[in-house]
């Protein structure tokens, strides 16, 4: 059972006030009006912002999606290895490392690849008979072709 909040008379489902009490209430107490008024004066709340936002808008003007994207693209990007500044993000969208660090990384990765290939080749050469035969045949053909070119 539901009762009116002012006079205590029985009211129907989803009702808080009877019709005479509802007419006497001020406009800001009525549910629908109160919600619209409240939504229009809500604060942004994005990262603790206290600026008011408009009706049906999720954030204030400063924290709107467009402005956040603009500020993000204007940020200065730093190298992940040495920390030197590369410049604005809009000019270096996919660059994470400076030129010096990228050259060092290329050299190091090439060394790792060579080590891995030597290890793989030795393992494959000594365990796979078919691979060994193909490799020896390839080497003999290469040497024959090289001798023909030199002569």
Tell me what you see in this structure:
It is a single chain. The chain has five helices and four strands, in the order ββαααββαα. With 151 residues, it is mainly α. The strands form two sheets. It has a two-stranded antiparallel sheet. It has a two-stranded antiparallel sheet with strand order 3-4. About 5% of the residues have low confidence.
Gyration radius (Cα, Å) is 37 Å
Fraction of residues in helix? 40-55%
State the separation between the terminal residues, measured CA to CA.
Answer: 110 Å
Strand residue percentage: 5-15%
Short description:
With 151 residues, the protein is mainly alpha-helical.
Question: What's the topology here?
Answer:
Layout: E1 2-3, E2 10-11, H1 19-24, H2 31-40, H3 65-74, E3 76-78, E4 85-88, H4 99-127, H5 129-150
Antiparallel strand pairs: 1-2, 3-4
Helix pairs in contact: 4-5
Keywords:
51% helix; single chain; 151 residues; 5 helices; two-stranded antiparallel ribbon; 4 strands; mainly alpha
């Amino acid at each position: 059972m539901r009762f009116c909040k002012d006079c205590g008379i029985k009211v129907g489902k989803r009702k808080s006030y009877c019709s005479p009490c509802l007419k006497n209430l001020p406009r800001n107490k009525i549910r629908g009006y109160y919600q619209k008024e409240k939504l229009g004066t809500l604060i942004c709340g994005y990262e603790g912002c206290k600026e008011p936002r408009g009706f049906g808008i999720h954030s204030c003007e400063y924290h709107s999606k467009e402005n956040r994207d603009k500020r993000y693209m204007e940020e200065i990007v730093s190298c992940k290895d040495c920390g030197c500044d590369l410049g604005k993000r809009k000019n270096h969208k996919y660059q994470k490392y400076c030129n010096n660090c990228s050259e060092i990384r290329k050299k190091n990765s090439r060394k790792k690849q060579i080590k891995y290939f030597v290890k793989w080749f030795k393992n494959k050469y000594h365990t796979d008979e078919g691979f060994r035969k193909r490799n020896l045949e390839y080497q003999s053909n290469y040497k024959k072709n090289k001798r023909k070119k030199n002569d």
